[in-house]
Amino acid sequence: MNLMWEWLTQMALEHGTIFTILIAAAVTLTMTLMRVKLIDQEKISAWQREVSRWEAERERAKKTGDKKLMAKVKKQELHINQLKSRLASQMGKSLIIMFIPIIILMLLWPVLIGFYGNDPVAFVPGLPWSGDIEIPFWIWYMVCSYFVSTVTSKIFGTAAGMGKQAGRAGQPSGGRKKRAGSR
After folding, report:
1. Phi (first) and psi of residue 170, to 5 degrees
2. Where does residue 101 rank: exposed (0-12), middle (13-18), buried (19+ CB within 10 A)?
3. Is the CB of residue 139 less than 8 Å from the CB of residue 123?
4. Which of 55, 59, 141, 161 is the most buried (most CB within 10 A)?
5. Cα-Cα-Cα-Cα dihedral sign, residues 173, 175, 176, 181
6. Which pLDDT tens digits describe the chain residue by residue (183 residues)?
């Protein structure tokens, strides 16, 4: 155990650029794999489509005054409210999954900053007269984290955050799109 700790410390100090990439990859992969295992993205998408269709029908019923359609919409309202509740539960689960690795990272952050402080861990070649641009740990970590999360979300077919999934349910219904386009 002690030998492994020494190796880890040595790697962190001597190879800060690679070590930072590995930390970002570990945190991002943890979040992504937890999301893939614990949240059924297809089910969420199906629920969101169903809610959107119902909202479009409700708008059409209100707009046209169709009593038969309004009765059908009212009949489905309880089911749709249950779907909305399930969606909210899944989004809450997604938030918890997102925060677990962040909390772990926040606990490790003082140790990592203790290793590096404001010392650069990465360098970007600059112009010949200006020299290399030095990148401190915290900036390099954010760059690596963004890159790794983009790549893993493409590989696993998940949203990089909550935005992609949450945005689908919040899209305007067909009736609203029609009105916006006719102005």
Report:
1. -85, 0
2. middle
3. no
4. 141
5. positive
6. 688 777 777 777 778 888 889 988 988 888 888 888 888 888 998 999 999 999 999 999 999 999 999 999 999 999 999 999 999 999 898 888 888 878 888 888 888 888 788 888 888 887 777 788 888 888 999 899 999 989 988 888 776 544 444 333 344 434 334 344 443
